Amino acid sequence: MTKTYKVDPVTRLEGHGSLKLQLSDDNKKVENVEFTVTNTRFFEKFCEGRFAEHLPRITTRICGICPIPHHLTAVKSVEAAWGVQVPSAGLKLRKLMSYAKQYASHLLHFYALAAPDFLFGPFADPAKRNVVAVINALPDVGAQAFKMMDFGQSISQTIGAKAVHPVTAVPGGMKRRLDEGERDAFLQQTDDQLEMVQNTVNLALDVVNKYWDVVANLAVVPMPYVGLADQGRHDIYWGDLVVCDQDGKRTAYSKDKYTEVIGEHYTKSDYSSHTYIKSMGYPDGVYSVGPLAMMNCCESIETPIANSALKEMRSKVGSDVIHNQFAGHWARIIEMVASFEQIVKYLKDPEICSDKIKTEHVEAKAGRGVGLSEAPRGALIYDTETDDAGIIKKLNLIVATNHNMGGINKVLKHTAKQIFEQDALSKVKLPDPMLK
């Protein structure tokens, strides 16, 4: 006999998903674990026949958490199809907006989605394990989190002209410049933000150290990783598609070659395709994307504080490729720090307030272009084909959900076997709850 347990919907998830766990009747053997995406989007199909310049405003609706990466990846794919170049100042505005969103989103994830489990303990009453309880117990920390998220989100809104679904990136550049007053207002906040960044890092490291036995021994699942890097350096806006195999070998591919590297597999139980490394086949080639994958796919980080933190994480784990899946929380904090450092860099760049943010002439034409960016949850690939009137003939999207589905199921199955077949929870040391 098989016992089936189902969680539907899975909470604290940016989207819609369900989890099914099948065990033997004595709960000692894992028959199957399956995470599925339970809704459809259809964006690829209903974008066909539309003007390509509308694409960046349509696909922001795919995700309310990461509309800016969708906005920018879409416009980059159109620019690639039409051979359009973006002025330096326009490119820097886009990068500033990208890093501001990454900063705000990673903080939201850490404080609202991850912190309750770690601070109250994973076996605390579910009614207590939520962000409201964290804020009630630590009001100063809650106020700090809101200030930090507001800083990143305000930059995104100012550049993108809307708080959630930006409209300012168009083929050839940006429609709205950042004026000196707006830039100065954000710069005045950076000293306070830096202090709060350090406070967040200290809190995160405290959590990592207290839970290190869990991080080191539970959900350690070797697999490939996919991310972005620009000549080996961490970059969320620009770069090559990088595959890091489970032994740590990194191989960079031009974004235009993604179909030679990545395949899509369709299951009977899921609305989302599962991507995999073609050379490894399915399911052996399923992989992971996101902050941990980004740390594995880059050789270094351009900004000094984050690069030092990356070295520290690699030293702690004892390897340049990190398969400790719970270390993803640490990786997210490192990427948050890198994002803040990049925000400061671009705010201090004299060109950031230039009005030369869009190329003067853009011609719609037949073509095919690929856009590649890193969203907070992982890589986005937009493959856009247009006719000679600039109307979309075909669109292929591979988003973080596609990239991660196979990897999520691989980690879940491995970890479930550890828990139910190997009694792993009795063998790892959990710290006392940090909050009561």
Query: Reading side by side through the largest sheet, how are the strands ordered?
Result: 7-6-8-9
Question: Which consecutive residue ranges, at least 5 long each, have pLDDT under 50?
Answer: none
Helix fraction, binned, reads 40-55%
User: What is the straight-line distance between the termini?
Assistant: 39 Å
Helix and strand string, N-terminal first? EEEHHHHHHEEHHHEEEEHEEHHHEEEH
Structural write-up:
The mean pLDDT is 95. The strands form five sheets. Strands 7-6-8-9 form a four-stranded antiparallel sheet. The protein contains 14 helices and 14 strands. α8 runs antiparallel to α13 and α12 packs antiparallel against α13. By secondary structure, it is an alpha+beta fold. β10 and β11 form a beta hairpin. It has a single domain, classed as Cytochrome-c3 Hydrogenase, chain B (Orthogonal Bundle). The longest helix is centred in the first third of the chain and has 33 residues. It starts with a strand and ends in a 15-residue tail after the last helix.
